[in-house]
Amino acid sequence: MPRATTPSGPVSSIRDVAVIDVVTGQIAPHLDIVIRGDRIRLPARRPAMSFPDCGTCTFIFGTSSPQFLLFIANAVTGVRDMGSDLQRVRHWEAEIAQRRLVGPRIYTSGPVISTAPAAADSLLPTNVVHTPAEARQIFERYYDQRVDFIKIIDLSPGAFEALKPV
């Protein structure tokens, strides 16, 4: 018989969470979740690090690699990507469409549009624009690339107006 392995990695907990069983509809309120590495355990006994009490919470766990099987296993058939590398997202979409990868429908914005570059440690690509002409050029490119929406941060009114369809 294979031996169970203990997950490794950082440990944290989230207190007072309501867990919904999607099969039965039962709600188990006031549980604590312990997260160790990539594993979640209910109920928690002694958390190593706690976040503030949050009552009924909704959690979105992000990693550098997609967790598509987890989405599908939990009946999530569509996800919204808020600014990843568009080429990588299009690759995932193609793999899903060709049934080489199991995953949800991905709604994507492509890189964020902002007046400031991304922080050095940011994982999200950013297109920096300062003028309405630059914003319009990005809009036209995103339109050709068929993004589902555009995510913007801190644009001037003129650059923002230039993002409207004509």
Topology of helices and strands:
Elements: E1 11-20, E2 27-36, E3 39-41, H1 68-73, E4 78-81, H2 86-97, E5 105-108, E6 112-114, E7 126-128, H3 132-144, E8 152-153, H4 157-161
Parallel strand pairs: 4-5, 6-7, 6-8
Antiparallel strand pairs: 1-2, 2-3
Would you kindly provide a written description of the structure presented here, covering whatever features stand out?
- This protein is of the alpha/beta class and 166 residues long.
- The protein folds into 2 domains: 10-59, no CATH class; 65-166, no CATH class.
- Helices cover 22% and strands 23% of the residues.
- It contains 4 helices and 8 strands, in the order E-E-E-H-E-H-E-E-E-H-E-H.
- The protein has helices spanning 68-73, 86-97, 132-144, 157-161, and strands spanning 11-20, 27-36, 39-41, 78-81, 105-108, 112-114, 126-128, 152-153.
- Strands 1-2-3 form a 3-stranded antiparallel β-sheet, with no helix packed on it.
- The longest helix has 13 residues, at 132-144.
- The radius of gyration is 20 Å and the shape is extended.
- The protein starts with 10 loop residues before the first strand and ends in a 5-residue tail after the last helix.
- Residues 44-65 have low confidence and may be disordered.
